[in-house]
Protein 1
Amino acid sequence: MKPTILRPVFCEAHSLFTSYPRLPLPPALRLLYNKDEQERTDDDPSLHEGRVRSFPHERGNWVTFVYIPCDPLPLLHTLLEVFCNLLESIAVLKPVSDLHISLTQTVVLRHHWIDPFVDSVSEKVKELPRFRITFDSVNVYCNEAKTRTFIGLTVSSGADALMSAIRVLDECLSEFKLPAFYEDPSFHLSIGWCLGDLTEPISTLVPQLDVVFQQFRQAQPDKWHIDVEKIMCKTGNKYFTFQLQS
Ligand code: AMP
């Protein structure tokens, strides 16, 4: 169709709409169609220690991950102080406040998927038995966006049970076409973090960090484990808990 034919029709319809005073849209509809309010990608890193959101904050999208929550190990604070001193010339290391072992990557769920996703996780995870995890070395990790570097304690025993958890969670993720966990998972408890990708300079000091950690382990061999009784899912600001079999 030629635009010359279409234009008068459009103008007519447009003038029909504009000749009447517009009623305000109900707030719920305004939110649905107002892109500024719907897709707020603005982020102020100064409000959260310089961290940049890896996923834009978007209405209807819920940033989600499944993890094992961890209480602070008794000597963690002291260990981290020593690590901070050793890394002083390279990085400003901060403690990780929400200690956890990740069992999925951070994924984005649409709001209407939350309940079915949580049901699916609950159904599959309830078959898993409780288990113990121990840590035996230090490693350095970087997030996908290369905006944060983490110092982690890597899991030695308990990795098999973690792999079983990953397998069932990967099944849940695939039901929702979400990405599986890392092909080559390195299970760890991040204890400190810093801004940017500092994997390279920190890696050169990992052997020294590891020597310190081994000294801590020798001094208190029974302190470096976690008894895993539950798994959690955080989606947006909601938390779901799944108890493992006793
Ligand atoms: P987390 O403490 O579990 O949040 O992990 C810290 C970062 O390690 C995450 O941002 C992951 O992307 C990153 N990471 C990099 N490589 C791996 C891996 N092979 N296994 C697990 N996490 C990894």
Note: The first helix runs from residue 3 to 18.
Protein 2
Amino acid sequence: MRMPFIAGNWKMFKTCKEAEKFAEEFKAIYEKDDVRVAICAPFTQLAVLKKAFEGTGIGLGAQNMHFADEGAYTGEISAAMLKEIGVDYCIIGHSERRQYFAETDETVNLKLKQAFANGIVPILCVGESLEQREAGKEYDVVRDQLFADLKDIKAEEARKLVIAYEPIWAIGTGKTATAEQADDMCGAIRDIVEEIYDTDVSCDVTIQYGGSVKPANAGEILNMPEIDGALVGGASLKAADFIEIVNF
Ligand code: 13P
């Protein structure tokens, strides 16, 4: 049975002081044990949050990592560095990284392998642009991404994967996919995973929806049968909003 998984993606927001303040506020109101929760924060805040979340069951995620073990890669962070400070998850292939930082399916694939090799659960982001949806290509785009991103990843690793379906046109725009659109694509993603692997793996994989999820629409989206959780951007920055989503 898959437990709902709600993760916050803070993107490039908050200083360490602000992260500590969020943690104090969130811990005071967080009491769920039937929902998996994590915050994916900028690198500088990870150690601060690790300490602040100790004993709460709240998971910790990064938003990117390099695919090499180590090396002359100025400005990059390795999986071992993240693991050392207790990071559980890493967002990989977010559309903002694909769009602004030249992330490709090839680098996403290498990063997924590196995350698994280091015991970090990847949150793999896939999703189509508005142009692609208007052309009726959303299914093909996501299918191509999944086949390329999961190339040569073994079933025993893939079953631990979290996939976030994030239509680019719904990110930070206030335009949410309808619950039906999100549910259709999450179901299609599970079918594609079944095609790549088998039914067992597709049943184990957690599939989130991301894109303008907020307290007002979280219940409708998260109660859809194919949607296992949410990757929340803007609305994860305020403890009062994020808890409403967690308590959907
Ligand atoms: P918003 O919730 O701000 O639209 O961001 C979604 C997202 O990109 C999460 O990764």
Note: Residues 9, 94, 166, 171-172, 210-213, 231-235 surround 1,3-dihydroxyacetonephosphate (CB under 6 Å).
Protein 3
Amino acid sequence: MKTYIVGNWKLNFTVGESSIYLHKLLKKVPIIRDVEVVVAPTALALQPLSLQIDRHKMKLAAQNAFYRDYGAFTGEISFEQLRGLVDYCIIGHSERRHILGEDDKMIQKKVAAAIRNKITPILCIGETESERSFGETADVIRDQLIGGLTDVSEEDLGKVIIAYEPVWAISSTKASKPATPDEIAEVVKLIRETLKETYGAKVAEETPVLFGGSVNPSNAGAYLTVPGVNGLLVGGASLILGEFTDIIDIAKRVKS
Ligand code: 13P
């Protein structure tokens, strides 16, 4: 299986800054077989960056999209409109769940819309600090996973990537604290067990599961060697050229 290194730029970089950053990134990153590098810029930059990017080296992701293809939905962007511009879309990021009020039902519709439009969904799931402290982690993970994948067939699950991002480990979360490899391993195991119950062992094994939360060059190696982890979803460090390219390098080394 490929290793995925996904940079989520969140609400950072203007269109011009995004283009300059991508230009530098393309210069530094070689074509790496088995490591899929993906960047998720602001939606405004997707069109120009789709013309600029070298798809042999890296791919584009949207950070979000709406579940209906067209219609009276002021301010939204549809997966249909993103078709051809991006290969991936982040769906259900905790910032969208907790700041923008997205629930599993909406997220499930977005996952289906992405698949319908041939865009690979990167479905984010993860518990908050208080959910973890109340011992609810397993329930939250199962609910978000099953909730997000309702109506996804066994065949279509092959087109889905799961990202485990504990909210308490995200660098911008108040009092955030990096997850330990053991904490990650436990939840990733649960994710695969849950997938196995619904879709069978083969699909569960073949679904890429990424980890995200305060990933940087000093922990990327350890996180990438956690059993069952197939890549990283990187926030803050993906905005710093040297750190992001170091993480890509580490992925390449771990892979070989
Ligand atoms: P940080 O890497 O800044 O913790 O962000 C993680 C994240 O939310 C990526 O989607």
Note: The CA atoms of residues 161 and 208 lie 5 Å apart.
Protein 4
Amino acid sequence: MNTKKRKISILGSTGSIGTQALEVIEKLKDKFEIVALSGGSNIKLLEQQALKFRPKYVCIGNNDDKLELAGIKTLYGNEGLEEICSNKENDIILVAVSGKIGLKPTLKAIENGIDIALANKETLVMAGDIVMQKAKTAGVNIIPVDSEHCAIHQCIKDISKVEKLIITASGGPFLNKTTEDMKNATVTEALAHPRWNMGKKITVDSATLMNKGLEIIEAHHLFNMPYDKIEVVVHPQSIIHSAIEYVDGSVIAQIGLPSMHIPIQYAITYPKRFEGIKSKSFSFSEIARLDFLAPDYKKFPSLELAYNAGKQGGSATTCLNAANEEAVFAFLKNKIRLYDIYTITEKMMATHQIIKNPTLDEIFEIDKETRIKTQELF
Ligand code: NDP
Ligand code: MG
């Protein structure tokens, strides 16, 4: 990065990734200028962020809410997010909203030739083929924020010589619990992630291992890697963030103490690297022990469901994403049990008529229809 400040907007600045991104930017304030910040319903936090970082725009989820700040224009809803992503003043946009709302703004940023730091994995699960193709055509970089994909991005020198990707999984809160414990888990138990403090949707996905399934699909699109060359290994300490194996058998892993600051910082400053929010210096002897085990596909059937959806391709992953997201929301509202997230998603997948190469309109239609049909099952 030259001395010119990099202009950045953060979609979802009030969330777990968004707030940590602002901590990174605060440390690197001579390197960044914020164009826009956006929140959903946490107007109070967005206001505090806006007063501190003085963006030109703020965007709030709902126009029933009010946020009036001198010298800062307020935008609303999904249109507001798309307006931010149409503003060519941006050098990079961090897409850190959760769920399906990430897709349209991401497409807008691509249309406008703006690089993207992508945290929102659902975008690639819904429409990875189209998003990656459009980004390639437009010459837009999509830099992963997800820690596993950031790790792989850091390890890869020559993608054509990669034999396989090895994605690590912490195993979530039910790793050492019985299947019965998991099936009947309360919302509080499912949200008690042992390693990461994240938004509720991804935390529930981590408890069912659907998060790892979504990450396999994300990795397939980001690195153009066939599914039989993407492996998952459970690694409870979350020290190895992921690895790649080259054709000659060499394995390169990215290692570090668990912290989302580092991948966020890497993505928004790429291709440069700065000290910024430096994590504590790493000591192998302090860590002493690293464990690895194969995932338990019986206890966590969502992982195989996602693998299969990815292999089927086309609209299968759009359906998977929509059904899972609606089921997670229902679980968070105590309408269904944790295990029902799987059974419901599996049911929706079983009846879905896959379109091999869906258009964007078809993707939005499938997303909408799947959500309606999924909601009928609660
Ligand atoms: P959070 O739930 O913490 O934050 C989500 C953000 O999106 C908040 O700013 C929220 O606003 C905003 N938002 C939610 N709904 C709407 C809406 N309808 N309109 C506008 N804004 C909305 O999620 P995370 O930060 O944990 O995750 C964000 C994304 O990053 C997800 O896709 C997740 O999978 C991915 N990710 C997250 C990781 C993590 O460590 N947290 C790690 C890897 C990937 P508000 O809170 O104001 O309502
Ligand atoms: Mg991850």
Note: The longest strand covers residues 162-169.
